[in-house]
Amino acid sequence: MVNLLSFRSVGVHLLRHATPIITRGGRISRPISKNLCFVLFSSSPKTSLLKPRAASSEDNSLVFKGDERVVGLLGKVVDDAFDNVDRFQSSSTIVAIVTPIGGPPGAVGIVRLSGPKAVEVARRVFRSAKKRKKKDSDSDSWRPKSHFVEYGVVVDSNGNVVDEVLAVPMLAPRSYTREDVVELQCHGSQVCLRRVLRTCVEAGARLAEPGEFTLRAFLNGRLDLSQAENVEKLISAKSSAAADAALEGIQGGFSSLVKSVRAQCIELLTEIEARLDFEDEMTPLDIESVINKINSMSEDVESALDTANYDKLLRSGLQIAIVGRPNVGKSSLLNAWSKSERAIVTEVAGTTRDVVEANVTVRGVPITLLDTAGIRETNDIVEKIGVERSETAAKVADVIIMAVSAVEGWTEEDTELLRKIQSDKPMILVMNKIDCAPPSSCDQLEDQRKKEEVFHKSVFTSAVTGQGLEELEDAILEILGLDRVPTGGHQWTVNQRQCEQLVRTKEALARLREAIEDEIPIDFWTIELREAALALAQISGQDVSEEVLSSIFAKFCIGK
Amino acid sequence: MRAAAAATATVSLRHFRSFPSIVPSLLFSSSSLPLHSPRLCVFLRRNFRPRQLFLNRPIAASFSSSSSGATSDSTYDVIVVGAGHAGCEAALASARLGASTLLLTLNLDRIAWQPCNPAVGGPAKSQLVHEVDALGGDIGKVADRCYLQKRILNVSRGPAVRSLRAQTDKREYAMEMKKIVDSTENLCIREAMVTDIIVGKNDNVEGVATFFGMNFYAPSVILTTGTFMSGKIWVGKKSMPAGRAGESASQGLTENLQKLGFETDRLKTGTPARVDRRTIDFSNLEAQHGDEEVSWFSFDPDFHIEREQMCCYLTRTTKITHQLIRDNLHETPTYGGWVEAKGPRYCPSIEDKIVRFKDKESHQIFLEPEGRDVPEIYVQGFSTGLPENLQLPLLRSLPGLENCSMLRPAYAVEYDYLPAHQCSRSLMTKKIEGLFFSGQINGTTGYEEAAAQGIISGINAARHADGKKHVVLERESSYIGTLIDDLVTKDLREPYRMLTSRSEHRLLLRFDNADSRLTPLGRELGLIDDRRWKLYQEKQARISEEKKRLKTVKISVAVGDLASEVSSVSSQPVKESATLESLLKKPHIHYKLLEKHGFGNETLSRMEKDCVEIDIKYEGFIVRQQNQLQQMSHQQHRRLPDDLDYYSMTTLSHEGREKLSKVRPETIGQASRVGGVSPADITALLITLESNRRRTQDVKRGKILEHALAESNPQWVEDREHMVNE
């Protein structure tokens, strides 16, 4: 038996030599225990390794022919295929924050890129300090030297500096995943890390699935068999956890928005593709209505992106305006919250004449508080300007906190003020001075909040004792949909994933609009629509092509 | 061996040319075949005979004569059962590859018959026709020869969906195809009803048995039974066993296939009534004319012979039609409930249309000629299961047909098919080696789909008989590949029709590049002769030359009307010294405009100009799709071993295990397209594969170690074997 085995291996080996390309492929599989093979079977170190895979495909020759007219491109395809035959070929480049997030921030956090385009992505986001001195425009051609640390900055697509980092390139195969890996060591705060992550995603990387680095390491032969079995367990456990999380994540308004946009994509695809396949039998396509639908879809995606809110929060943080009548304790609130003496506090109504800013961080989201002049009818010119500025601040803020005095309760001025600032922004009613207010006025205020439907939440606070500030933070998080972010930050990763797909959708729709403007034939529209639908399907997890077909047959009366 | 998968034409070319070095390996591979196979000696002898790769006619003939010494009248290399569109392409491809081929049919006078709509092409289907032609098949040539009318559809919708449809003369079509079949070397044709498959000891096919007791032997058999296997036609409540109206069904084969372990199921399709052209009043009907400038299916200019075109007409259903149907729904097989087999959604009967789309007041009906010299008119869109006595009143409710006479009633046909997951992508069945299925037996409809499968099974049957590797067209290589991949992967419950929406990368699978995608393969296989190959190469050279010219020739903005017309047509400014290429990329600018201003190339054909324009105009899109494809195909083409035990993979979902065990996909990509298999399943599968590979490796390493030790210490190994046996 042993004899026959080795005998046949020789046969296979000869076949390999008859076709040089296969031998070339074999080269790659060498690393595993080559020494052993070499000693015992020195005539052909690769043979024994090649056999297990070879067996199944010997009966068939697979033909993947390309278009000879685009031969240059295909030549490359084929070459690549040969060079990598024996390795696990992951087509995509993945990125993730690999240091733990949530909990107290560490001094340093690491964003890891892995995959065939890791260097390319890094090149897009990383500007080495060394090269920048020489020539700014040349900085695109960053050539990493494997296992050498370089200092520089991460910049976004507009060239704005995101963070200063150390880049550690580890080129294949000398890396954890045996692919090209670039690690970016950033500042440890969540905001920095997420911005860097985001920049990498924008530069073409994809967010890693849970355990994906380890999976790739395994599939590329990096781990041994016992480790492999652990990976298997790990992956199955993690992916079910991820599935749970994903399910949880797609509840609510965001999910319904995604679903509705996706449904619209499918509907449009249906409209267009039915006409491609059954031209004779259908009424002509109403191009104008298609364009309108596409525009409304783009808008929806934009607003879905806003719902996900991730982008805006991490880039510019959040602005919260504190408005209210004079002397309800807005400035005290700001001081107590930001633990500073940023605003001057007196007993005198109308002390604050201008907008005062202070910064706080809520669950990693940077927030700028805007303390404003108390809004009232006044003849004082300075105060008048202050009041105007308050109104402007209320307009630009992302969230409005309306402060009232729990002591005085809801007044007519409050009603007037509410009418004045009229805003569709999320609003929180803060009933300040709770420490010295009678319970009856609290009830009255609560009733009032229910009557005035504009308020999303109400919180009782005391700037003096600091009571209620935590509830206020929670209220803000809840309004922004971040309240379910567990301390481990899991919810965030789900949101980022969704966000990534939304960005993909947005880009596809943008290209679609471009195609329409350039009056490209409608078949090309389907390419982008499909891309958009696929991206959205990543969030809700459905197959597109079958659905389009079913929809065509259900919707149109076609057929001969 | 995945290297071989990616290795394309050139590889195997080298493979064969380096003949001396390949002999030992072939020796080994055949030694792994059953030693008691009666054909083994022939097999080996053939393998040792040096052979040129490109088998043209003369060489093919010598091949056949060398093997005919060993064959009698009942022994062939390939037997094709059925002479429809699949059978003809299969038999022709096989014979042209040099295999002595027998084509068996129930009726010699009905070769390549068009029992339903006498038309070839249409969206997605025309791509199939172009692809078959690019591989050297015949459906396109015959359609080009026999057309009554031709139209390009989707003209302005994009190059990938532009498609050609031809109305054909159905009798002429059959005659033309018969002429080709009759005049092809290595190809015999004979009337017979095949009732059984003769299977050898190793689950390999050895031949077929026929109704009258004749046996024919061959190592490859292709079944293309169409609607004939246990076929039954229905008109109203009346039914009779028949494959087509007036032709007897094929009985007994289904049962015998089931005995061999094949799963069979039943499908239904239908065809509308035919009316007499002379009794139709066309005066108030909208006429549908053919294109003034005729396009062609075949890439071979020898077949581009223009002929006079005929007209089709358009009529509509009326209130009376709808009422009549609603009143008699209980008389139809589907709504009356006596036929259960499922009909196709894209080919609904008129009663289906009226029931399902209640609010639609009228449906379009096309009147299409069936031939130049016959009065039959095909009433497209009007298939029905109503009894014959109601059919004429129904037809007469259509404008223009008030006084028509019906020549043939509409009927439905029910037939057996074999869900195609029982085939691999070479179209050979997984159960019986050497047995191939093609056409409607695999659950498709349409002449084009049948022809596409036919040519692939013909190629593979011939190669199989010759001990060569099978050819598989990857999904993204062609519509043919997409079709076969869908058939063998998906759980199909209705007759499968090719649609453009089924192809994910259709921008790369256009009609204009079918030749540059597939003709080199056809050449390599031996289906493209020298003349055709020369034509092909010259065409490609002209196209690439022209693209180069457009890239380099610049125009001056100051002089010439071209620049000003380009900017006015495209409403985009033209840069100083812009290249012709950059002009062609602008919206609404076509090659014709360059020609108008004297910047075209008169020596190019219209087709070639189209190619140039498409390549340049949509370059960005094409490159993007190509890149996506490239990224995807790495992973997708990873092979799956044949002997995977999916049930033992506990990390797979239950549904995944079940479906994968049933379909037994050949590649990861195919596995991912199996219904019910989730991305998580694929990850789990990859992990299992890799673990298995490592385990095998460890075992192997152990064996080698043992081997080495055995040389130094034989006693030790004996002990080990003893232990293992216990």
TrEMBL record, chain A:
Signal peptide: none
Subcellular location field: Plastid, Chloroplast
Gene Ontology BP terms: tRNA methylation; tRNA wobble uridine modification
MF term (GO), any: identical protein binding
Residue ranges constituting the TrmE-type G domain according to the UniProt record: 317-481
Keywords: Cytoplasm, GTP-binding, Hydrolase, Magnesium, Metal-binding, Nucleotide-binding, Potassium, tRNA processing
Keyword Acyltransferase: no
GO cellular component: chloroplast; cytosol
tRNA processing as UniProt keyword: yes
NCBIfam families, per the entry: mnmE_trmE_thdF, small_GTP
Family statement drawn from the similarity comment of this UniProt entry: Belongs to the TRAFAC class TrmE-Era-EngA-EngB-Septin-like GTPase superfamily. TrmE GTPase family.
Protein name: tRNA modification GTPase MnmE
Source species: Arabidopsis suecica
From TrEMBL, chain B:
Cofactor: FAD
GO cellular component, one term: mitochondrion
InterPro entries assigned to the protein according to its UniProt record, in alphabetical order: GIDA_C_N (IPR049312), MnmG (IPR004416), MnmG-rel (IPR002218), MnmG-rel_CS (IPR020595), MnmG_C (IPR026904), MnmG_C_subdom (IPR047001), MnmG_N (IPR040131)
GO molecular function: flavin adenine dinucleotide binding
Keywords: Cytoplasm, FAD, Flavoprotein, NAD, tRNA processing
The family this protein is said to belong to: Belongs to the MnmG family.
Protein name: FAD/NAD(P)-binding domain superfamily
UniProt organism field: Arabidopsis suecica
Taxonomic lineage of the native organism: Eukaryota, Viridiplantae, Streptophyta, Embryophyta, Tracheophyta
